UniProtKB/TrEMBL annotation:
The keyword Lyase applies. It comes from Shewanella sedimentimangrovi. This is Glyoxalase. Signal peptide: none annotated. GO terms for molecular function: lyase activity. SUPFAM superfamilies: Class I glutamine amidotransferase-like. Keywords: Lyase. The lineage of its organism: Bacteria, Pseudomonadati, Pseudomonadota, Gammaproteobacteria, Alteromonadales.
Length: 217
C-alpha cells in the first residue's frame, strides 16, 4: 500500500490550511485505498484571523502544528519526524497559511522565503525523486524549492503568475478542473480555490491531482 504525506499549514483559509482542500485531499486518498499521514511544522503561525469578520486578532498567538491537528483529528506529526523512506509522495493543500506559515509569499511576494522546516521537509521528497502535489496557492513555493524552469500553476491570477515567473518558474494557466504536470521533476499542481466557486469545483481538480500523484509514485 502506498503511503502519502500531507503537509498542512494550520486550520482555516485565512491563516492556515484551506479546510475544504485539505479534507478533499484526505477523502480522495482514502477512497483510492492508500494510507496517508498528516504533517505540519511546529512553529508559530504568522497571525490569527477571525474567520467571521476577516480581521486579524491582535495579540493572539497560535501554533501551526496544534491548529493543523484539528483537521487531522489529532493524528499528525511535526515535519522533523519525517522518515522519507516510508513515504511515496507528498501533497500540500492551499489556504493562506501556505503563503503565510509555510513561506512568506503573502508578505514578500517574489522575494519570499520558504520556512526552514518546510524547505527540509519538501526537499526530502524532491531529493528522493518522489512526486509532490501543490494545491491552490501552495505552488508559489515551487520555483524556490525546485529552481529555474520548474513548472506549475496557480490558475489565472496575473499578479501571482507574474511572481511565479519572476522567481524562475514556468507558469501555465489552468482552469479549476485542470492540473499541470512537470513530468521531469514529478510536480503536480491545480488551482482549486484560486478559481473555485464551490466545493464541487475545488474537488474536480484535487481529484485529478491526487490520482496523478499516485500514478507518479
Amino acid at each position: 500500500m502506498k503511503n502519502i504525506a500531507v503537509l498542512l499549514a494550520g486550520c482555516g483559509v485565512y491563516d492556515g490550511s484551506e479546510i475544504h482542500e485539505a479534507v478533499l485531499t484526505l477523502l480522495t486518498l482514502s477512497q483510492a485505498g492508500v494510507h496517508y499521514q498528516c504533517f505540519a511544522p511546529n512553529i508559530e503561525q504568522m497571525h490569527v484571523v477571525n474567520h467571521l469578520t476577516g480581521e486579524v486578532v491582535q495579540g493572539e498567538r497560535r501554533n501551526v502544528l496544534q491548529e493543523a491537528a484539528r483537521i487531522a483529528r489529532g493524528n499528525i506529526k511535526a515535519t522533523q519526524a519525517l522518515d522519507i523512506d516510508k513515504f511515496d509522495a507528498l501533497i500540500i493543500p492551499g489556504g493562506f497559511g501556505a503563503a503565510k506559515n509555510l513561506c512568506n509569499f503573502a508578505i514578500k511576494g517574489a522575494d519570499c522565503e520558504v520556512a526552514p522546516e518546510v524547505t527540509g521537509f519538501i526537499g526530502a521528497f524532491r531529493d528522493a525523486g518522489k512526486p509532490v502535489g501543490f494545491i491552490c496557492i501552495s505552488p508559489v513555493m515551487i520555483p524556490k524549492l525546485y529552481g529555474a524552469g520548474a513548472q506549475g500553476t496557480i490558475g489565472t491570477d496575473e499578479g501571482t503568475a507574474t511572481a511565479f515567473t519572476a522567481m524562475g518558474g514556468e507558469h501555465h494557466r489552468a482552469c479549476v478542473d485542470e492540473i499541470v504536470v512537470d513530468e521531469k521533476r514529478k510536480i503536480v499542481s491545480t488551482p482549486a480555490y484560486m478559481l473555485a466557486d464551490s466545493i464541487a469545483e475545488a474537488q474536480s481538480g484535487i481529484d485529478k491531482l491526487v490520482h496523478k500523484v499516485l500514478a507518479l509514485a
